[in-house]
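Backbone shapes recur. Consider a single case.
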Amino acid sequence: MKEIRSILASYDAANHKLEKLALAAVVNVEQSSYRRIGARMLVSSNGQWVGGISGGCLEGDALRRSQQAIFSNKVSRVVYDTIEEDEHQIGIGLGCNGRIEVLFLPIDPEDKDNPIEKLRRIEGKKEPGLHLQVIDSESHIDSLGRSIYVSHPNAVSEDFPIRLQSIQETLDVSFRERKNQIAFAETMHGERVKVLVEFMRPETRLIIVGDNYDVNALVGIAEHLGWESHIIGRRKKISQQVFALAKRVYEYEQFSEIVLDDYSPVVLMSHDYNWDKKILPLVLEKGAPYIGLLGPKTRMEKMRDELNLPGLEKVAHFHSPVGLDIGAESPEEIALSIAAEILSVFRNRSGGPLRERRGSIH
């Protein structure tokens, strides 16, 4: 979501009388690629861009293709195939080794339904949804690039040129498993097109319980990741840096005002045993998808026994000691460890070394 926000900010800052824009979007990936489906890059006719579709090996050609889309005012689709050993193929020797499909979409600022305005509507959503886009069309080039956002797999819309019923199973799987899917669908005229079903996560809302200086590091990492931070602690102890970066700051007594959803991890790091002990049952009751408790295991066990919470350490979404085992010592390293564990839980990954993973790293 951070990349989308950056693209929206760049679009809003552009002088549309002097600059023309195009959006490049990764819509399919086979085998290895630095960026995955959903990576986007906003390109200006003056050669500037925001975002990215690869680790740098494709951006130069993508810039050229985007400018072609701008000046032709036509949507185009390009397949970058770096699997085969071809010295003339872009990306060889740069670690791509995959097949990447990219759509290049010219942007009409007068069109209130252009791809950027559609992203703006998605960016503000607090619940997950699905972004559907036609990424290949043999007969009707006009349908290429057409897209729609639906808040639920069963949502019905007349604004999209395909029959959603023809890909209903794909929509259900994508929403349930929180994964992108590719499907072949039928248009209203009975023709087949390829559709990307992109699962759109809402912004992660990190809830931090604590007001000591180590909160600064965690809020800083959350900012870089594009997460929204909410802080609970004594306002008079919280730094100006945290106030500047946090979405909202609460006093401990205001914890009941916090609303948690499936994208709201909670980290208790107050360094105050009594406050952690008081707030932990409230977090468990609210049903946070991730709960991290800072401190040694003996501290957690004492709290567990005093709260009469047998089996607390076996609760799947409860993590104490919090963070991945990377040997973290400084506040910044500890923050990195915590953020990495949250991401691994939300993406359903082990958090172990990639070299030990069998099959694709994605």
User: Anything to note?
Assistant: The mean pLDDT is 86. The chain has three domains: 2-115, 127-200, 205-346.
